[in-house]
UniProtKB/TrEMBL annotation:
This is DoxX-like family protein. Keywords: Membrane, Transmembrane, Transmembrane helix. Coiled coil: none annotated. InterPro entries: DoxX-like. The chain crosses the membrane at residues 9-30, 50-69, 76-94, 100-121. It comes from Acinetobacter qingfengensis. It comes from the Bacteria. The keyword Transmembrane applies.
Amino acid sequence: MSHSKIIKFIYIILGSLWVYQGIFPKLIFTSPDEIAIWQWVGLSEYHAKLAGQTGGVIEIIFGLFLIFYPLKILHYLNILGLLFLLVLMSLVMPDTLIRAFNPVVMNVAMISLSCIALMLYHAKQNNYSE
């Protein structure tokens, strides 16, 4: 399988995960954890829910960019964003890091996919320059 096909597959998977995360735990079924995070920064319950939903819309847009406008820089943004969110969760809700379904597993997996895509980009560039 060519590097281009693998990279395209990674974009589709990452984009789909971001869209899912934006739709279900943020817009359709607003997660109590999401509200708690925003309340931790000082927002009222109403504004925390609104901020969570806004975050969901941003996640959906980011996911759609990954799918339909696959740019290399999106992988760097993905890595930085997921690292930030992981640090935030460890500060605000450290108990989530040891739950059965926790942000460590999802974030590390998504970061790894971006790292693989970047390695493939690099390998592809090296093959063209030889």
